[in-house]
Amino acid sequence: MGSGGRKSVEVFEVQDFEQPWRNIDWNPSNLKSELSELLKFMEKCKNIRQFKILLHGPVGAGKSCFVNSVRTVYKERIVFVAAEETSAGKSCTNTNKTYKITDKDSVTLPFVFSDVMGLENQDESGIHLDDIINVLHGRVKEGYQFNPVSPLTDADPDYIHEPSLNDKVHCLVSVVDANKISLMEDEMIQKMKAVRKSALRLGIPHVVLMTKIDVDVCPLVTKDLAEVYKSRKIIEKMQEFSHTIGPPLKCMFPVSNYYEETELDDKKDVLILSALKAIAGFVNDFIEDINI
Questions:
Q1: 196, containing H or E segment
Q2: Per the UniProt entry, what are the Gene Ontology biological process annotations, in alphabetical order (predicted)?
Q3: H-type helices in the chain, by residue range?
Q4: Whole-Å CA distances, 137 to 62, 74, 197
């Protein structure tokens, strides 16, 4: 007991790791070269023009911002094309929209991002679960406007009855805000589990991007992004999401999108390229598995 009968409270400081718990090459040029080799393999597949990567997740997690960040890395200048979600709490993306990626020499890369309306807790808000599953199957035409309370049906003119390999999704990427993983309500958890289960049933690889890692999650990372893989807080957030939704840690990647920056940042580039390299690798595995 302390003075006045009050109990003393011990405060434990979270200790970060001395050595990184995941190795990463912090040279963006090296990562681009490695990624280029994976993309060359994808280009050899004659049955698919461009591989489709579906971005999905809660509103405000940074899906559209990630598209702009990837374009920024490849254009080697700050790019803003995809409408980014704001703090207003509503999705900026309301249609089924596909984004191509080109480099600074205007060469088109062999993959596209499919960006859809964000998930919300309430069934009457955000993208309907059936519509995400329709996108996974390749049944939704480009430009289709999502209706939270009325998903696409086979009677709709925007419904693709016989989707080709080009229409289908080849990798599912869940985008989640690191700061909100502990705050996810059961409705959101069940929706994300259902989407993951549908993708795995189709043999589609599933990757998770954990965004906003330098915003209030860990002082070490806020100070220096290069310390991300020494951060105990970061791996704890990843483990929490893994235990809640199901993906293994090897399929999860912390990233920091370009948001307010006006100049390029090698550390951001490396984390983005590292995630893309993993996605490309999983897509290549998918190609081999289905023999196309």
A1: helix 186-201
A2: immune response
A3: 28-43, 63-75, 129-137, 186-201, 219-223, 232-245, 266-290
A4: 24, 29, 13
